[in-house]
Write a structure and sequence with these properties.
- With 351 residues, the chain is mainly alpha-helical.
- 70% of the residues lie in helices and 1% in strands.
- It is built from 13 helices and 2 strands.
- The protein has a two-stranded antiparallel sheet with strand order 1-2.
- Helix 2 runs parallel beside helix 7, helix 4 packs antiparallel against helix 10 and helix 6 packs across helix 10.
- The protein is globular, with a radius of gyration of 21 Å.
- It starts with 9 loop residues before the first helix and ends in a 20-residue tail after the last helix.
Length: 351
């Protein structure tokens, strides 16, 4: 029989705390070291590091966007469809509409926030499970994407896209892809929002125990709508970057990003702040996935290895997220939570 938290030695508790907190960053460093030893000529190079940062910046941004509703115990399954529509709409406004690229980007990003707000209203005021509601709205977004493109790609003319627009993704900052700096800024902003501001703390309380949140006067519906709106804003921004990266509008491209986003968000709940989703943990999880995918890709893995890797990682992430939440509750001596989040897989403790 395992010892109760009170009977564990301080050293055991400290060791368990460090493993839970820093396990994913340590795993990312270990994976990088292993692949560097196995592939010394290609993996530990600046070109490869830049390629990983560039290729994984959009999945990381989308994972951070998915994190926000999960904090409140909701899930937004429309983010993949929203990403596809945002990237197609950006190119549609630029290529077919002739809009100035700053205005087109701004409209798409704000449009993402508006749609996220609509998602939140449907979930909270329509009292529809977030899985079902966002799956339905996502399907509607996919229909709009097909209607705008006519099922075909949007291809720029001979003059191409404005250089200022493509530089949003292709340029460098401090010698590294500028897209990596977007991930850093967004992660820090979400960390401040969730960990240091009352808004984020209220969201964590709602995700931990919505009934208790209502009893202490927190407007749970309003803050849940805020969470969906924030997610939509991030998805719109990710769609703009995807358009700058792809430079061709494809109606189905966004769906490929849905699974990695949730893998990163859920796996991230096992690190930094084990037992609850958090921005820095999400970044650490995306780093593990990015290094792993890059490594197996350079080892010559077949095309089906990527979905196998992502699917397996999602199952592990959900299991570890639930285990971390239970372990956190046991460590604080609170036992099992009496209330589950509205749609979430495991309770989160409020800060």
């Amino acid at each position: 029989m395992s010892a109760s938290p009170s009977r564990r030695s301080p050293l055991d508790r400290l060791r368990g705390h460090h493993v839970g907190t820093y396990g994913l960053p340590a795993l990312a460093a270990l994976l990088f070291l292993v692949f560097s030893v196995v592939l010394p000529d290609t993996f530990p190079t600046l070109d490869n590091i830049s390629s990983i940062l560039s290729n994984q910046s959009i999945p990381a941004i989308l994972a951070l966007g998915a994190t926000i509703p999960i904090v409140t115990g909701r899930f937004d399954l429309s983010i993949g469809y929203g990403l596809g529509l945002a990237h197609v709409m950006t190119l549609h406004l630029l290529v077919d509409g002739g809009w100035p690229w700053p205005l087109a980007c701004l409209v798409v990003i704000l449009g993402g926030a508006v749609f996220g707000t609509l998602n939140g209203v449907i979930v909270e005021f329509g009292q529809i499970d977030s899985f079902i509601a966002t799956l339905g709205t996502g399907s509607i977004l996919y229909a709009f994407t097909g209607w705008i493109t006519g099922g075909a790609r949007i291809v720029p003319g001979g003059s191409g896209l404005p250089a200022g627009f493509t530089d949003l993704y292709d340029s460098k900052f401090l010698g590294l892809p500028v897209s990596a700096s977007y991930v850093f800024v967004l992660a820090v902003a979400l960390w401040l929002l969730l960990e240091r501001l009352p808004l984020g703390r209220y969201m964590y309380v709602i995700g931990s125990n919505p009934r208790a949140a209502e009893l202490v006067g927190i407007p749970t519906r309003r803050y849940s709508v805020y969470a969906f709106a924030g997610s939509g804003l991030v998805v719109g921004f990710a769609g703009v970057l995807l358009a700058a990266q792809q430079q061709i509008g494809s109606p189905s491209v966004g769906l490929d990003y849905l699974l990695p986003a949730f893998v990163g968000a859920l796996l991230g709940s096992t690190a930094i702040k084990p037992g609850r989703v958090n921005a820095l943990g999400t970044v650490a999880a995306v780093a593990v996935l990015a290094i792993g995918l890059a490594g197996i890709g350079q080892l010559g893995a077949e095309f089906w290895a990527i979905p196998l890797f992502n699917g397996t990682a999602l199952l592990i992430a959900v299991g570890l997220a639930g285990y971390s939440a239970r372990r956190r509750l046991r460590a604080t001596g609170t036992g099992r939570s009496t209330a589950q989040p509205a749609d979430g897989p495991a309770s989160q403790e409020a800060p």
